Amino acid sequence: MNGKKIERIARFSLVAIIIALFAWAFKAGSFEFIINNPGDLLYLSGQHLRLVAISCFFAVLVAVPLGIFVTRPKYKKYDWIVINFANVGQTVPTLALLALIMSFFGLGWQTAVFALWFNSLLPILRNTVAGIDNINRSIIDAGEGMGMTKIQILLKLEIPNALPVMLAGIRTSIVINVGSAALAFLIGGGGLGDLIFTGIAIADTGIMLSGAIPIIVLAISIDFILGKLEKLVVSKGIQRKLEII
User: Where is the ABC transmembrane type-1 domain (predicted)?
Assistant: First the structure.
């Protein structure tokens, strides 16, 4: 079975699962709850998006420069320390991470943002390092042969060529964060987890799914938008090269 057939089957399966989930939500009364409480849904969605946006913004701000830093020959020996530090944020379950950070920062919004930030570092950091490390050495040699400085090689050769891999890490991190942000409710961080955990507490599947469905829609929408944005910022030549590969 070739790659395109597997991709088509995966897409079909994903669409079938989403349709089944929406049918379940309709039967459970989730859409009726959403229609009757639009203000609550908008308020909680705003909180959810704010948590994701702030934590991911700071994750990109830290992980991308850090990834570039440890790919410099002089600092390459420190990459295992940085990667393993980020591994901690990814491997510790989000709920346990929230509990650990809560012991330092207490309950509230700031704890949720810090935990989500820590949790989203690894995909961005690892992809930044992998993207730059896997650039064909002949490209760098050509730049050096043309007399380019180290900064010029970084900005004009390394980052543009590593950009698709780096953006894939950022997309992965943001989509994971959209789901993980539901746990922020447990420490007073707000968000759509409010509806999910309230539904669980009172055994009402309709309310629970009225929080879960918007999270799924947000994750798919954000991934779609970022995919389109990626096509805009990555040069056509690199896109054609990836398609050929």
Answer: 45-226
